Amino acid sequence: MHCESYLARMLILRFPLFTFALLLLSMSIGAEEMGIEEAIELRQATFKSLKAEVKNLKEAMGDEPADSAAVREPAEKIVANAKRLVGAFPEGSYEGDTRAKEKIWKKWDDFEKRQQKLIADAEQVLAASNAGSQDDVKKSFKILAKNCKGCHMRYRQAF
Ligand code: HEC
After folding, report:
1. For the segment 12-53, what is each residue's pLDDT rounded down to a tens digit?
2. CA-CA distance, 119 to 141, in Å (whole number)?
3. Is the whole model's pTM more than 0.85, yes or no?
4. Is 97 helix (H, G, I), strand (E, B) or coil?
5. Which of 71, 81, 83, 109 has the most Cβ atoms closer than 10 angstroms to its Cβ?
6. Whose CA is nearest to atom 9 of ligand 1?
7. Which residue has the CA at smallest separation from atom 39 of ligand 1?
8. How confident is the model at residue 1 (pLDDT cuts 50, 70, 90)?
9. Please, which residues have CB within 8 angstroms of residue 10's CB and are 6 or more apart in sequence?
10. Is the Cβ–Cβ distance between 18 and 11 less than 8 Å?
């Protein structure tokens, strides 16, 4: 213990820049590894919630009034989760326990557009719910659900 702290102090005193660079390097390596694994876990958990919320919304849509909590709440959660997905696809996160295709990062503009569309479409559903329009809820839900499938066909590995 004593010996280690002596060594650390000596390093810092004699080679401050080197020690600092070493520290930054070890931090960035750690952050990157954690970042990718965390991002994969975050997005998979988020997609799972999305699936459940889409199901809740679909079920409520037919039976409950458009502006009821049964419709509004899943719509709100879908908006929040769609936003949570932004940033959950860091460069290189197609390796590991993931079904994300490498193609995502080759077609990044298109992928990002689809992510933004998911947010915008979910906001449309929410707006329709707030406006109390059953027709608009159903119409905007259809558009939202189409994007799920379209993106999976291009960018998610089949099992
Ligand atoms: C912008 C593209 C895109 C959109 C839009 C999208 N997904 Fe996904 N989804 C993916 C990708 C890529 C994966 C694979 C993620 C991974 O394994 O790291 C995935 C994975 C999933 C999974 C599996 C999660 C798991 O690992 O258990 C579910 C469920 C899912 N999505 C549901 C949905 C639903 C529901 C919607 C629409 C409301 C949706 N997705 C919209 C790209 C998308």
Report:
1. 777 777 777 766 665 555 444 448 999 999 999 999 999 999
2. 12
3. no
4. coil
5. 71
6. 152
7. 148
8. very low
9. none
10. yes
Alpha carbon distance 129, 76 (integer Å): 10
pLDDT at position 141 over 90? yes
Structure tokens belonging to residue 93: 């996160």
* Nearest atom, ligand 1, residue 112 CA: 1
Q: For residue 100, give both structure tokens.
A: 């994300």
The class (CATH top level) of 41-155 is mainly alpha
Question: CB within 6 Å of ligand 1 — which residues?
Answer: 40, 43-44, 47-48, 50-51, 54, 98-100, 111, 114-115, 118, 144, 147-148, 151-152, 155-156
CA distance 124 to 140: 6
Per-residue pLDDT of 87-139, as tens digits, reads 999 999 999 999 999 999 999 999 999 999 999 999 999 999 999 999 999 99
DSSP 100: B
Instruction: Look up tokens 């988020």; give the residue.
Output: 46
Q: Which of 110, 143, 152 most suits a substitution to test ligand 1, by most atoms within 8 Å of the C-beta? A: 152
Q: How far is the CA of 148 from the centre of ligand 1 (A)?
A: 7
